[in-house]
Design a protein that fits this description.
single chain, 326 residues, mainly alpha, 13 helices, 69% helix, EC 7.1.1.-, oxidoreductase activity, acting on NAD(P)H, quinone or similar compound as acceptor, NADH_UbQ_OxRdtase_su1_CS
Length: 326
């Protein structure tokens, strides 16, 4: 009892919050795998998984069992330490991104004044994990995927940051809870109304930063076999899979907090509004993946350097000018 009393209450709160986050991520990965497969099936006019459980609802559990049961092996001449460090780096930093996420008025693991900065900083570690996976596997397709990852992520982080800065300047804070509180309950009171261009830029960059189609060039099955994770099997591949879906939830949550009013909505504010908006954005991710074809790598970079960065810069300058004047 004395030992428990000596533990700071904040530490206990964070530990409980991290356990809840791990459960939250695990459940959502299973749900999103099923939603992705069924969504792809309906978009492509086929039933999708239909055999394991009613309407294939147990298919994600079957997939998880298959991945856990597969043998793990290290490729010849690969760097074993870096090779197995990469999937770990892909998953665990993502869990930290949920710490400052404002799910509701009082549903936040830890209030962080620089929460937005924390998310942007730790999100960069995912790029490092992808780069290590491709380089350490001693595979030419993996190396090409790693090179594409660096080029793509570094490029698209710039307009993403500029879009986020527009909201930070407008609200005068990097605390996500403060940004949400600065918006009203009705859609015309959300930041998407005052910053529509920043919202569109953020959304496009979110697809690129999470390596989702049509910007999934680092893995591009039609060109690079599986890109950076070509040599991974079992839970090595499964951890990259989990990280991708967890990152989708993170960017959807950040987008909801920045542009869509967070937990606020018509009627009674609460966690349900936050989750409804997050699920709507996740549905958009799935719809776009199975609707639009993958772009070429030169097109991907041209979209960023010729369009997104100039537009994001002009939008930021316009925001600063209007704030100074009004």
């Amino acid at each position: 009892m004395t030992f428990l009393a000596a533990i700071p209450s904040e530490l206990i709160h964070i530990v409980i919050g991290m356990v809840a986050i791990m459960a939250f991520v695990g459940i959502h990965v299973l749900v999103l795998v099923y939603a992705e497969r069924k969504g792809a099936g309906h978009i492509q006019r086929r039933p999708g998984p239909f055999e394991v459980g009613p309407h294939g609802i147990l298919q994600p559990l079957a997939d998880a069992g298959k991945l856990i049961g597969k043998q793990l092996f290290t490729p010849t001449n690969a760097d074993p330490i870096l090779f197995w460090m990469a999937p770990v780096l892909a998953v665990f930093p993502v869990l930290l991104l949920f710490v400052p996420m404002p799910f509701g008025p009082v549903v936040t693991v830890q209030e962080v004044n620089l929460g937005l900065l924390l998310i942007l900083a730790f999100a960069g570690i995912g790029v490092l994990s992808t780069m290590l996976a491709g380089w350490a596997s001693n595979n030419k397709f993996g190396l090409l995927g790693a090179a594409r990852t660096v080029s793509q992520s570094v490029a698209y982080e710039i307009p993403l940051l500029l879009a986020v800065l527009c909201i930070a300047f407008q609200k005068g804070s990097l605390n996500l809870s403060t940004i949400v509180e600065g918006q009203g309950s009705w859609p015309w009171q959300w930041n998407i109304v005052t910053q529509p261009l920043a919202f569109l830029i953020f959304l496009v960059c979110a697809f690129a930063e999470t390596n989702r189609a049509p910007f999934d060039l680092p893995e591009a099955e039609s060109e690079l076999t599986a890109g950076f994770h070509t040599e991974y099997s079992g839970m090595g591949f499964g951890m990259f899979f989990m990280a991708e879906y967890a990152n989708m939830v993170v960017v959807s949550g950040v987008c909801t907090a920045l542009f869509l009013g967070g937990w606020k909505g018509p009627g009674i504010d609460g966690v349900w509004w936050f989750m409804i908006k997050v699920y709507a954005l996740l549905a958009l991710f799935i719809w776009v993946r199975w609707t639009y074809p993958r772009v070429r790598f030169d097109q991907l970079l041209n979209i960023n350097w010729k369009w997104l960065i100039p537009l994001a810069t002009l939008n930021l300058l316009g925001t600063v000018f209007l704030m100074k004047v009004f």
